[in-house]
## 1
Amino acid sequence: MQQLLAAAAAMQNQLMNAQQELADASVEGTAGGGLVKAVVSGQGELLDVTISAAAIDGDDPAETAEVLADLVLAAIRDASTRAADLQQQAMSPFAAGIGGAGMPGLGEMFGGAGALGAGEADEDDEELDDDEDEEPDGNDEPGGQASGT
């Protein structure tokens, strides 16, 4: 029993360290060949969005606004995906440990190694395609109006 408690305390310490590393980490996502950049913390919090002046077309502000909105969303999604990958990488050893690899007997309490779903994907899980939900006119909003206009 003492070994189990010591292993649990060690795992908790490692988990806290991994969570702190995620909090301190940041990842960058880009869109439009780097015209828009988004920075997200390792915990998934949006920290910064940068838009290059080259992305702005003064001759067509309405089109520029639509394109920038799409690029900002794409950059944030890219950064968020990278943050989720970082989280998965940082936390997967703990899911394996709960499954029994690091703490014998504890995995059964949680339904075995796969109970937490770490690294598993449903057949229904697919990455969202930006074009998937677009209206025929190329806008994401019904009726041809882009959001924010």
## 2
Amino acid sequence: MKTSIRFTLLFFSLASLSYENAQAQFLGGFFSQQSEQRKLMAEQIAQYEIYLSAIKTGYHITETGLKTAHELKNGTFNLHDAYFNSLEQVNPVIQNNPKGKAIADLDAQTLKLFSDEFTWQQQQKRLTASELTYFQKVQANIAAKCKLDMGELTDVLTTGKLQLTDAQRLDRLDKIYERMKDKFAFAGSFTSKCRKLANGRKNNRQDKYQLKQLYGIQ
């Protein structure tokens, strides 16, 4: 009887130990699985946050890049605008260049040569009507060319008219000056020849008159 009781107690003791071991193993496995899952979830969350951070960084870079490109583009246009606007400004040194006044003086003198000569020829009446008409045509042609040169001079020396560098404006002044000198020289030569022709005819008339007086020809 005692032996049977001992056997029963031993059986329950072993059974209890087995249960506790099994329970411990089960709980240990359960908590181990929970720990692994939490670890995996933490890793996934960390990767997800890294991914989001990369997206945000990429977006920021793209946004910054586009903004920078836009600023550079606008900056380039602004630089271009500033450059072309500066070309429209006339340097005071160029505006006060002596050649500007010299061109204007040559223009006035050229026109005056023609005007004075035509007036004198009309008074003297030594040129024929066709010769006077030709004189007026030459005068009008030179006056038209002078007007073009003076218009260009005004554009070169006036702010906002032309987009030119200082060197280009000086080059234009030089060319206008040379053209105006040529016209002035031509005007002087042409009017001088007209005056010589008229004076020659006057002398011929005087010579004829003197011959008539000498020989008593009426």
